[in-house]
Design goal:
single chain, 441 residues, mainly alpha, 84% helix, globular
Length: 441
């Protein structure tokens, strides 16, 4: 059965579990760090949006290339698909190395730019410096994941992520407890465990791509790069720009939270880890839908692509709301997993109720934006969406937090406003059907 003829559920359920397992990694790292020091967990958590910005750019760029490969596969142009895959692998590896060279000299400055001081800044700097050496492995892991999913073999991505989490957990224990005669490495150990787990996962997924999908790079592929490269740049650069802008927006929000004090910062880090649980289903469905839409656009079956989007949209919005509501209901109890500070628990639990408002609109944005990218219409969410984010989104967050004096609650509700504005505009864009004319074939 061709990928475009498969059901949304058959493609998405391994992706849902994959993202669920993947989102467990920062939660697990926060837990290990909190066992060392809550200040360490807060300091590292404050700079995670910076890593998120870099990784989201890599992921979006890789998925844009994978969507192009999917369109070629949907249109039965297998040679073009293979050339695209080769180009993505090489390009993302070079991008990962470039990001390492960017972060290493800036690691001592980044924490200060977002307002961290003294001990939290030192922990953040140490974590950034060590993990930077693993960026190329993370880029390959992300790219292999996107390419394997493009061919519908999403179960292997789940296995790859389980390997990542398992190796990360084992290495965290080894480095933090000082097993096998090693010194207890603290924050450095958590960072080192993360980087090595990326390497292990990249090696496994690279093996799967070669053995299961029989991907081999040929010299003739490089001659055809000039044919495909313009489309990858046209779709990939805007596709990377929009999530990068979103992560910068998260860094801005984090800086605002830091200005409210250590209690607010710690509350936000721990509650954000729990809030991530609500995103799992919508991200998995959005990714499965992105694969289907790309294949269907390649086959010029636009009506079915439209039906797929609406099916994913309804399911993801409802499910994310229900999950966010469930997390909020047990929020105070869940916060004790990270801390016993009553003020942190109180503020974090209140943030989780704000997340109930945010998640349905976030789910809508994930599904619609990924579908627009899959069809080749990545410029609109990048330009219009980012513009709205830095005007209406920022304005709403600052007004609620500092004019109405709602503090961190206002910042969280401001993020909900941003997701609402952009989801409405992106849906209008989809309904107009411009995406039907922007594919690569």
């Amino acid at each position: 059965m061709q990928v475009k003829d498969r059901s949304l559920f058959s493609l998405s359920w391994p992706l849902i579990l994959t993202f669920g397992v993947g989102m467990f990694q920062p939660i697990m790292d926060s837990w290990f760090l909190s066992r060392t020091s809550e200040v360490a967990a807060a300091g590292v958590g404050a700079v995670l949006p910076i890593l998120g910005a870099l990784f989201m750019a890599i992921q979006a760029f890789s998925q844009a290339g994978a969507s192009i490969a999917s369109q070629y596969l949907g249109g039965n142009y297998s040679r073009h698909a293979r050339v695209t895959q080769t180009m993505i692998i090489i390009g993302s590896f070079l991008l990962g190395i470039s990001m390492t060279l960017l972060i290493l000299p800036l690691s001592s400055s980044i924490s200060k730019w977002i307002g961290l001081e003294a001990t939290p800044a030192a922990y953040a700097e140490e974590f950034l410096f060590v993990t930077a050496f693993g960026f190329a492995f993370r880029a390959l892991q992300t790219t292999y994941t996107a390419l394997i999913a493009t061919h519908g073999l999403t179960i292997w991505n789940l296995i790859g992520n389980i390997i990542t989490i398992a190796s990360n957990a084992i290495l965290n224990v080894i480095f933090l407890e000082g097993w096998f005669g090693l010194p207890q490495l603290g924050v450095r150990g958590v960072a080192l465990a993360t980087a090595i787990s990326w390497l292990i996962s990249a090696l496994f997924l690279g093996y799967i791509l070669k053995k299961k999908l029989h991907h081999n790079t040929k010299k003739s592929d490089f001659k055809r790069v000039r044919v495909i490269l313009p489309d990858w740049i046209r779709i990939g650069l805007p596709a990377a720009a929009e999530p990068f802008s979103f992560q910068l927006f998260q860094i801005f929000i984090t800086a605002m939270v830091v200005s409210l004090g250590t209690i607010a910062m710690t509350s936000r880090i721990f509650s954000a880890n729990l809030a991530a649980l609500a995103v799992i289903l919508s991200v998995g469905l959005g990714s499965g839908n992105q694969i289907l839409v790309a294949h269907l656009v390649g086959a010029h079956d636009y009506n079915k692509a439209n039906r797929r989007l609406h099916q994913s949209l309804i399911i993801s919005c409802i499910s994310s709301f229900l999950i966010a509501l469930s997390v909020a209901l047990f929020g105070a109890h869940l916060m004790t997993f990270f801390t016993d500070n009553p003020e942190v628990i109180r503020i974090g639990a209140a943030c989780l109720w704000c997340d109930v408002v945010l998640q349905p609109f976030k789910a809508a944005n994930i599904v619609i934006t990924s579908s627009l990218r899959a069809a080749g219409d990545s410029s609109f969410p990048a330009i219009v969406g980012s513009g709205m984010m830095w005007t209406l989104g920022v304005g709403s967050a600052l007004f609620l937090a500092f004019v109405l004096d709602l503090g961190i609650i206002g910042l969280w509700l401001g993020m909900a406003c941003d997701e609402f504005y952009r989801s409405i505009v992106n849906y209008i864009r989809w309904r107009k059907g411009r995406w039907k004319t922007l594919g690569v074939m």
